[in-house]
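TL;DR need C-alpha cells for one chain.
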Amino acid sequence: METIIKVAISGGWKPQYEKATELNSVIHFCEDGSILATGENGKFLEVYDKSKIVLDHLFWQALGKACGWKDLVCSFCGTEITRPASSLDDGWCRCDMKSTKAQNGWEYQALKFHEINLTESFEKAVEYLLTLIPKA
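>> reply
TL;DR here they are.
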C-alpha cells in the first residue's frame, strides 16, 4: 500500500487530516497500510487509516493522474472511449454490451478495487492496484 500511496502523492494527493493542521506535516508509513502524520518537530498529529484512504475520491483522482489512466472508459469493461462528450450518454464499446455508460478511469479502477476487496480480500485488491502502476 505504501507504493500506491506514494504514487497518489506524486499525482497531487494530500491526506485531508481532521486534526492535523500543520502545513509541513511529515508522513510516515505504517505496516498495516495506514499513514501517520507528525509535525516537523516529530510530535504526533494524526493517523490516517487505510480504509479512509481508499474511500477518498481525491486519492483515486491523483492515483489515476499519476498512472495515466484514461479520462473516459466503458463502465463494463474499462476500455477507453474516445467519443465526443455530447454522445457519452449512450456510447458504444467493443465489449458485447449494446449500450454502455462512460465513466472516469479513476472511478472505474476505484470500483474495481472495492469489488476485489469485498469479494476476495484487501490484500488482493492492493495486488490489483500494483499491476496498474507504471514501472519506473
